[in-house]
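Hi U.,

Before I forget, here's the chain from the pilot set. I'm dumping it here mostly so it's searchable later in email.
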Amino acid sequence: MTDSQASPAAANSSKRKRLLLGLGAIVVLCSAAIFAYHELYGRFYEETDDAYVGGNLVQITPRITGTVIRIAVDDGDYVEAGQPLVWLDPADTQVALQSAEANLARTVRQVRGLYSNVDSYKAQVASRKIDVQRAQADYQRRVALASKGAISREELAHARDTLNSAQSALISAQQQLDTNQALVDDTVIASHPEVKSAAAQLRQAFLNNARSTLVAPVSGYVAQRSVQVGSRIQPGAALMAVVPLHDLWIDANFKETQLRDMRIGQPVTVEADLYGDDVIYQGHVESLGVGTGSAFSLLPAQNASGNWIKIVQRLPVRIQLDEEALDKHPLRIGLSTSVTVDLHDQSGPQLSTQMPKQARFSTAVYDEPMAEADALIERIIHANGPQASAADPARQN
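Structure:
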């Protein structure tokens, strides 16, 4: 090979080496950058776009049978806790309530009669005791006279019979007193079993009447209204739902390989597809699921059947959002989001170790009817109790 032919080949070889060295340097630099990014930043964050807005669907269901006569709201309407939503025909429940009121008043008066019977039998026992003492004294005097022959044996026998009759009358009166005393022992009218039973019937009738009006347990927005005017509904039928949009969370489904360093309490940023990156929500990890979605599905995977293919599972992680951002930029249940969890702080537990200190969800809208029922019972007992007769001028004359 001549020198002129070798020179271009050597130049091409040198150029190729330089290109390979440059490419190798780029690969090394990219690998180093990726490694540095992972070590300094990437390994401290886990992301997923398999995340959706979750919330409570508070179902409005009747507790009594009735016919719908009025509906106050429709889908999308905002309601406050305690606001009436649906009215049922109250005719039947009002009749039952009036009957229960009359029954309680009658029972109170009957129980008053039991206490009066006790007082009457106490007076009878006291009278019978005096009769026994008198008959005893007469009999002792006649025994002394009979021993001296001053009276006949027939008169002594009559005195003995009178004493026996008085003692029998005392025993009978005492038994009647004990029987009536047992009906009222250790009670007052309000705590008497018969009155308490009638009061319970009235309380149930009052609650049934109050339940003819269905109210919102929480504040929120109406959804899934299916009830119609004129419908005959049964207890437990779903009429509509109320969704409190101020109390939403994110259900983020992370791969099992992403959960190694994830802990409760770690900060989270959330981006909703509804607003894009213009709105970033802040939150924290509230809980890590105790099972994968497939484990709780209607038809769990049969991994032991032999027809098995390994699939990376996902575990639901609940993200609690800050309410301030929700108030400014409300979300809806089911919306898609992207979630990023900051893993720097790993001091928290993977699973909750303490019981909740208070109820997570509660409502007080059903307390008022019970308090009103108790107040009505107290008024009826007071109106028909002993103080009623004491205040009645006709009874005092």
